[in-house]
Amino acid sequence: EKIRIEIISLSLTDPRVLSDETIQQLFVECRLYNLIAEETPLSLPKPTRGQRIHYNYSSVIHVDKANNGARREYLKSMLLKPDGHTESLRFTVVSDPPEDEQDLECEDIGFAYVSLREIFQKQRDIIEQDINVVDSQDDSVVIGKLRVSVEALHALRSVYQECQDD
Fold first, then answer.
1. How many angstroms separate the CA atoms of 115 and 105, rounded?
2. Would you state the torsion angle of the CA atoms of residues 162, 158, 79, 163, taken in this order, to the nearest 10 degrees?
3. CA of residue 13 relative to chain centroid, distance
4. Class of domain 2-165
5. Cα–Cα dist 153/163, whole Å
6. Average confidence (pLDDT) over 9-26
7. Half-sphere exposure at residue 64, Cβ-oriented, CA atoms within 13 angstroms
C-alpha cells in the first residue's frame, strides 16, 4: 500500500522570476504534512518563457499497516477530520545556488498543492496534470505550472475501509 508521486516537469510564466538573475537552478521538494519529504535528485537550469524542464522523478511513500503506522494514522485523521493545511501534498520549487556561490542559501520560489482528500472525494488519481505554482511571497500570484502524477486512491480507500472497520 503506497502513494506514488511523480514530478514530471516545470514551466515558469512569471516575468519577475524569469528575469531574476539569482535564480539559476531549480529543484522540487514534495512534503506530506510533516511526515516525509522527498526532493528531485537534480536541480535543473531555470526554464525560459514557454520552455519546460523535465525532472521525470518518481517516489513512493509506503503507508502499509505493518511498517508505517504513523503515516496511516495521519491519513485516517485527514479523511475523518478535514483541515485544509494538512490534507495536501505540498510541492516546493526551490532555487539552488550556483556552484560558485555555495555561501548562498537555497530559497523557496513557489508552492503547489495536491489535495489527497480531493483525490478520495472524486475517487480519481491525478495523472500527468498541470497544477499552479504560486509565489512563495504572495499566494495570489501564479508563477508557473508543475506537471505531476499522484496515485493515492488505492491507499486512501484502504485506510478509509480500516476507519469503517474500527
1. 29
2. -10
3. 19
4. mainly beta
5. 15
6. 94
7. 5
